[in-house]
Amino acid sequence: MNAPHETKIAHRRFFRWDYEQERRLLDEASAQGWQLSSRTPWGVTYEYDPTARYRYAIDFRRDHDEARYLDTCREMGWELVTGLGDASFSLLGRQGAPWNDYFTPKSDCKDGKWYIFRKLYRPDRSEDDYSVAAPGELQEAACQQTLQKLRMLVPMMIHITYLFLFLWMRIDEGLWLRMFIAIGMIAGLALCLLLRFWVTHILKNAENKTLSHRRLVFLTDSISTIELFLLLLELMGIILLLFALIHLY
Amino acid sequence: MVMSKTQEPLTESYFYILLCLYQGPSHGYGIMQKTLELSDGHVRIGSGTMYGATANLMQKGWIQECPPSGTGFERKRMYQLTELGRQTVLQEIERLNHLTRVAASVVGGLS
Question: How far apart are CA A105 and CA A98, in angstroms?
Answer without folding.
Answer: 14
